[in-house]
Amino acid sequence: MIPFSDFFRHRVCRVKATARFFGAALLCSAWLHPAQAQEESSSWRNREGIVVVVGAPFIELYVEPGRGYARFHAVEKNERLRLFKTRTDWFKVETEDGKVGWVPRRALVDLYDTEGYPLELRTPSWKDAQYPWQMGLLAGEMEGASTYTVYGGYRFTANISGEIKYTQAFGDTYNTKLGSLMLLHQPFPHWRASPFFTLGAGNMKVFRDGVLVKAEDEKDNAVTVGGGLMFYITHKVVARLEYNQHTLLTTRDNNQEVEEWKAGFSVLF
Amino acid sequence: MESWIQRAVLILAAALCSATGLAQERTVLDDVISPDLERRQIDEDKLDSENIEIGFYAGVLSVEDFGSNDVYGARLGLAITEDFFIEANLGTAKLQATTFEDLTPGVLLLSEDDRKLIYYNLGLGINLFPGEIYLGRWSFNNNLYLIGGAGNTEFADTEYFTYYFGGGWRLFLTDWVALRIDFRNHVMEHELFGEPKKIQNLEGHMGLTLFF
User: Fold this and answer.
1) Are A134 and A117 a contacting pair, CB within 8 Å?
2) Residue A170: what pLDDT?
3) Cα–Cα distance list, B177 to A205, A206, B82, B172 (Å)
4) Which of A159, B34, B125, B140 has the fewest Cβ atoms surrounding its Cβ within 10 A?
5) B122, B135, B211: best mutation site toward chain A, by most A Cβ within 10 Å?
6) Pairs across A and B, CB distance < 8 A
7) Which residue positions in chain A have pLDDT lower than 70?
8) From CA B88, how far away is CA B75, in angstroms rounded?
9) pTM for the complete prediction?
10) Listed residue (B171, B187, B102) closest to B139, CA to CA
């Protein structure tokens, strides 16, 4: 069976093969065939991607990127592979004789480059979570109302990040929207379970449910302190548990304090 | 006692000798056999990664009391591993009149503007049963998935917290184009008719996605 994605490639190959046949017939008479062969292999190498030499006894090629798919070919030691595409932890590769398949990251060990230098394809661990940008989603509870929070963050130093958060709370008779700008401090950024503290300010709007009571919508500035725990699941995914205490600077005599618990995850990039 | 000390000293000495011997051997052999080879890193950024999925879809969204309505939406996804992906959706639909409005001439519960429904959400999906299917002599990659998430639904001038769960089918036409068919249930609670009412809104949609 031929993967449909290779349809066009096969077409191209067929055209190429035909061209090659006529080309070879012409060139053979002029004793130029070896030169053409050389040209071909260098064009294979010059195509997009990274050429590696297999150092392990063999590497198996899968038909599609997934651990359960059929393995249809084994590339042997000292043969060359061209890596040209990735999806999650899978690499799409092409052998020198034109076989195209997928190889998992864990199989790409013991590689050499064409000059014989050992090549390293590191499997990133949670310790490589050094990306500056972060985007996440948290769900939780604020004074009995269910909430969700979308946030984006940027890491200025290993310890300090800035975050923009948008929280919406859905209570029985009201809707709350809170936008805030936070500063986040991680005292131990190299721990896998890393505690953090936040400090920030924002604006909270409370919309009373119009059907039930004709109450005024409120809009107050809020100051937020909080803390929590981040857990690096992989180098790209972080789980997060967070507690926030919002102090609403109301126009009334007393400021109002609102507590919020939430949990969720974020993706680093 | 003496023999114990002797033995200990001898073991220690032997260990030291062998350690230094080993160390010496290694450095000498190192120089001869494996010169200090520079390990080169593969720069993965040179490779085209296809983890981001972008697509559009169209289908039918049934909103309890408001009939079945055409829905159009867009999605943005990210494959985290070969098993898990996250996906954000933004969809919109125009709601029909309720049965009560249809049967009672002159009664309109919602204005035209309020009948416009917009939802957005973020969910986590898990790919199940990946495999190849065969059509003639061609093979296609495909998988089923379960997905669930939460978000916001906006209609009748109010926003409602909504969670959803569902599943679907992803058929890869090539490595980078896929056909998606989804069925989802959006659950939320509204008080449009006075009392709080929990409603389930079934959605079926179909679309194409591209991988970048």
Assistant:
1) no
2) 84
3) 42, 44, 17, 6
4) B34
5) B122
6) 132
7) 1-46, 209-216
8) 6
9) 0.71
10) B171
